Amino acid sequence: MNIKTVLRPADEAGVDQAAQLLRRGEIFALPTETVYGIAADARQGAAVRKIFEAKGRPQDNPLIVHVAGPEMLPGLVAEVPERAQLLISAFCPGPLTIIMPRGPEVADECCAGLDTVGIRMPSHPVAREVIRRSGCAFAAPSANLSGRPSPTNAQDVLADMDGRLPLILDGGECAVGVESTVVSVVGPKPTLFRPGHITLEDLERALGEEVEVSAAILEKLPEGAVVRSPGMKYKHYAPKADITILDGSFEQFRAYVQAHADQNPGCLCFTGEASQLGVPCVEYGREGDGADQAKHLFRSLRALDEQGDGVVYARCPGRDGLSMAVYNRLVRAAAFRVVQL
Ligand code: TXA
Ligand code: MG
After folding, report:
1. What are phi and psi of 334, to 5 degrees?
2. Cβ atoms of residues 291 and 278 within 8 Å
3. Phi, psi dihedral angles at 326 (to 5 degrees)
């Protein structure tokens, strides 16, 4: 691939160009409130295939279809189940993807052989304006090369996608920083497939019932296990460094790092801790503040890569509320290596 990539502001003219590309069956990158995405018209199979090619994405990993509002759903979904209605009223537009029965107009390439489709209504004004001007629902995965951390600013998109797509719309830094919460309302029980800014507790409150948590969220699945959400089985967010999460207090963490000084380790730590550790550090957010950690995690993983490879010890985020989303990404970046201190 050697396409000339233009990075331009997401202003009137930029958004207009993006809307034209969408209608013509071309791909481009754009900001959303979660992370940057690579968009293609969800009804054009040939356009959607270009996304897989640009990312080097496995064909069996389905894409999320983005719409402005529920009025765009006919044709894309077979029905809007009652639970989906409740979730839409509570959280949309916003950082939530709802898995629903698939409709006839979605390109096969979006669904990877499943009879369901992931639907999301982004709140970011640029994403919404592109949909409005083009009249198209767009399929979009995160705008990273497959396996790399999701990009949360336009420069990080360029680092991965230069030469692979014609346009990157620069809309500044993403507010949320981790990808949308993915919840399925197909099947007997609602199920959380991927944690995000909308938490498990938020979903249960809106639905008035318990939501099942897919086993793959916090733990490594056994070899050959069946996954209902294919994205969960891939090694994800993998930086070059060998990250190990150390679960314990700051004092225990510092002692462990000092005891392993012969490895010349680096650290991924909380805000304000770098100066106390005496080794190269990247800070990824305030301790106990899941929203702040979510916002900075992916940029921090990329910053680690820019420092080089080697051994990295990471401070452990919580596992509940918004921290579940942070832990879910970090434990994958660490290839599930967690040491209890
Ligand atoms: O915040 C986001 O969701 C971003 C922005 C660009 O909107 N998009 C994103 O897409 O994160 P992607 O492709 O990187 O992640 C989509 C996840 C994958 O884990 C995939 O397996 C799952 O959603 N998914 C999509 N459609 C599905 C379906 N029909 N059934 C089960 N899982 C599905
Ligand atoms: Mg992704």
Report:
1. -95, 10
2. no
3. -70, -45
- The protein residue whose alpha carbon is closest to atom 33 in ligand 1 is 229
Q: Cα(310) to centroid of ligand 1, in Å?
A: 30
Burial class (CB in 10 A: 0-12, 13-18, 19+), 255: middle
Q: What is the pTM for the complete model shown?
A: 0.96
CA distance from start to end of the chain: 47
Smallest Cα–Cα separation from 214: which of 235, 204, 200?
A: 200
How far does the centroid of ligand 2 lie from the alpha carbon of residue 259, in Å? 36
Q: How far is the CA of 275 from the centre of ligand 1 (A)?
A: 37
Please tell me the number of the ligand nearest to residue 182's CA. 1
Instruction: Give mean pLDDT in consecutive 10-residue pieces for the chain, a chain of 341 residues.
Output: 94 98 98 98 98 92 97 98 98 98 98 96 98 98 94 98 98 98 96 97 98 90 75 70 96 98 96 96 97 98 89 96 96 94 96
Helical packing angle, 154-161 and 290-307, nearest 10°: 40
